[in-house]
Amino acid sequence: MYDMTIKLLGGDKHLYEQIYEHIRHEIWEGRLLAGERLPSTRSMADYLQVARSTVAYAYDQLLSEGYIESRPYKGYFVCPIEGMVDMAERAKDPAQEAAPRETVVQKPLYDFSPHGIDMSAFPFSVWKRITREILSEDHQELFARGEAQGDYRLRETICRYLHSSRGVNCTAEQIIVGAGNDYLLMLLEKILGRHVCVAMENPTYMRTRRIFHSFAYPVVTVPSDASGMIVSKLEETDARVAYVMPSHQYPLGTVMPIGRRTELLKWADGGADRYLIEDDYDSEFRYRGKPIPSLQASDDHGKVIYIGTFSKAIAPAIRVSYMVLPERLLEKYNNECYFYSCTVSRIDQRILDEFIREGYFERHLNKMRKIYRSKHDLVLRELEPFAESFRISGENGGLHVLLHARGAVKEAELIARAAAADVRVYGISASCTEAVPKLEGTVLLGFGAVSEDDIRKGIAQLKGAWL
Amino acid sequence: MYDMTIKLLGGDKHLYEQIYEHIRHEIWEGRLLAGERLPSTRSMADYLQVARSTVAYAYDQLLSEGYIESRPYKGYFVCPIEGMVDMAERAKDPAQEAAPRETVVQKPLYDFSPHGIDMSAFPFSVWKRITREILSEDHQELFARGEAQGDYRLRETICRYLHSSRGVNCTAEQIIVGAGNDYLLMLLEKILGRHVCVAMENPTYMRTRRIFHSFAYPVVTVPSDASGMIVSKLEETDARVAYVMPSHQYPLGTVMPIGRRTELLKWADGGADRYLIEDDYDSEFRYRGKPIPSLQASDDHGKVIYIGTFSKAIAPAIRVSYMVLPERLLEKYNNECYFYSCTVSRIDQRILDEFIREGYFERHLNKMRKIYRSKHDLVLRELEPFAESFRISGENGGLHVLLHARGAVKEAELIARAAAADVRVYGISASCTEAVPKLEGTVLLGFGAVSEDDIRKGIAQLKGAWL
């Protein structure tokens, strides 16, 4: 491991900038070589006596500029950069150490992030026009404080949308509008109370798991099969709440069949305090078969807390999510949490409301479905030559597919070989709380933000790297 | 008490609307008379088997339309409405009960809410122009997910503003931008941890107290004197954190002198885990003497958590607040809470940033200071004839003054007599956790949202009602 000695200065320059610049300089000067491991953010922070996030910022900057890469379970490594010597070479020819060459630094050319979304088709001009029109309305009201749960008008709109597109049965009174899922989960903590044991799958959406941890909620991992969380195993735990993504599990992309849904609902019926959190994060995108209704649609006993967001279907910057509370929890919210002000500005609520009411949201969704379906189909076509060496899963919905190596090759090697060919793919281990043997050679290939041209070229590169 | 029998129907009409309409109808029909008490929201909710908030919604609607009024510690009462019979009259002439007269319903003509702000001078056209310009920028970036703490550029801007106007010493790294104070307090709970005993004054800002309660934080009330929280009394408690408003205490309007500030800081120094939360909610408005610097400005040991908002100085709908964390808590945030996404949209952050950077915020503040100062001075002038019967306090800053009756008259009577003269004033008891004997005849007179003409007329009405 590289021994880091950075002289941090006071004054105007931020600490993270100093760390970033130091490491970049070391890479440029050839003192840090491709493949070399950097200290962990924690040990670096301890060593330099700075906050861990200061180091994380610096690493993020280096990551995003392609100087270093993150390898699951391993840490951060200096990237192989064109024109630069790597560790292996240095070992072969120690003389090179003294004479580093000029370097050209590049980001990975093809980034198949599962979190990227395509903003190219977003109707900016419509959004702008609606914004302009709304700002010309009666300002006094628009700039005043609004209802805690979100403006009633927007809640009615969301209610109608959820009913028609997701089969969700609710009234506007049950809906709480908030600035992002993280915030709504924080509010949910206040409603559910302390020490709620939550069941999650493995792999799962790690962001939510971290949030439950920060609530000091005990989180138990319940094994899954092809249908999702195994209810008999859930029964064996102390869980009061189970967090599931029935329409499109992240990261596996599986759809929970009706049988398993019924079992889960029955589990929830088994205790007055039991609930299911349904995170319906990207159910809008489904390319084969009938649309999958929400779990909430089958819930007759008020057991499902339904959470969804506009960040994925519209834009990440649109910080509007919604939570549908079952009656009993709504009552608790009304009695105990009614005073938390809404976190979304009324202007933004009005813009979104108009965007949906005027039909632009549906049109945008249809357009995006077409675009993503076309990318999805292209990915599957381009991956045909991989069939002998890889099994594909999680297709037919969402914005990524999974590739499972049929051989003994491991995730880290797949990622490293892809990186050497200028392609970034994502390991499933980042979503795992404990290793899943059958997923050891599995990577995620997201296509939301990748152009069709780049999908073709990127997968061609992968062919060279993997086959 | 009125015995409420409402047949609630299913179907399209919301429950709260049905309750609202029923009660309004009963008032119109003369079956509910002025001065009659309504059931509490809780008992009404129990009786009708609906959520308490459904009843609260209905009551709020009736309140805002002037049908009913809320009396501190007493409950909700039907308002005396012009042309309508009241209870006393009915007692005198029972025949009237059968023949209710046509009625005209009115809102209180003059509402001196301490929470109202004047939006008439807000530079809507500038806000619109900036919005338009920003929406014409590079959209991809603007609609993408931003930094968790808020965009660095905006944090730098806030940092400069806080330094120059409030003497706050911090870096942009210490600032967290969030959608409202409530949200920032929720985040602070995650940083401070569980079971933190918080000291508050009495009276205090009840909204924050409710929020601490919902964290299940034990809240202790520490007695105050004219300088604010008494530190020797604070020492006697188990409090780890003290919540104060040193620049302008709500609702008393007192300014904490430097001596008391130093004592408080010394108290905080007495324990590694002790902190002061400084809520600097409306320090922008100060009409006499030098500007009051923040408590954070005197903090050399990283003991002050500084919280402020743009809701008051710009508009309630601008859901942007900021929290300045001392180094040790920043480290905890960075290690344990860094994954909570920012709750303010990047577009809104950019608009606000431009608004401040282009100098409009300062110009707007100056304009508002002039407007509020003029209203403030007018209120004091118009209140001169009250001097014999009332003592005034909390003047020279903020958006309200306090009137203390010199005689034995109680708050509820002052409010009722004002209401009968079409004026709404606000009792201090709503901000009290336990009765404060010397504040028994105290009301708040807010002037932020009242026009100068209405200030003159409203206070003239009060003269008739109270003197």
Low-confidence stretches of chain A: 83-106
* Whole-number tally of structural domains of chain A: 3
CATH superfamily of the largest domain in chain A: Type I PLP-dependent aspartate aminotransferase-like (Major domain)
Evaluate the radius of gyration of chain A: 24 Å
Which sequence of strands runs across the widest sheet of chain A? 4-12-11-10-9-5-6
Shape assignment of chain A: globular
Q: Give average pLDDT of chain A, whole number.
A: 86
For the largest beta-sheet of chain A, the strand count, sense and barrel status come to: 7 strands, mixed
The largest inter-chain interface, given as chain pair and residues per side, is: A-B, 67 and 66 residues
CATH topology of the largest domain in chain A: Aspartate Aminotransferase, domain 2
* CATH top level label of the largest domain in chain A: Alpha Beta
Alpha carbon gap, first and last residue of chain A: 31 Å
Please state the structural category of chain A.
Answer: alpha/beta
**Oligomerization category of the chains in this entry:** homodimer
CATH architecture of the largest domain in chain A: 3-Layer(aba) Sandwich
Helix percent of chain A reads 25-40%
The number of helical segments of chain A is 16
User: What is the number of strand segments of chain A?
Assistant: 17
Tell me what portion of residues of chain A adopts beta-strand conformation.
5-15%
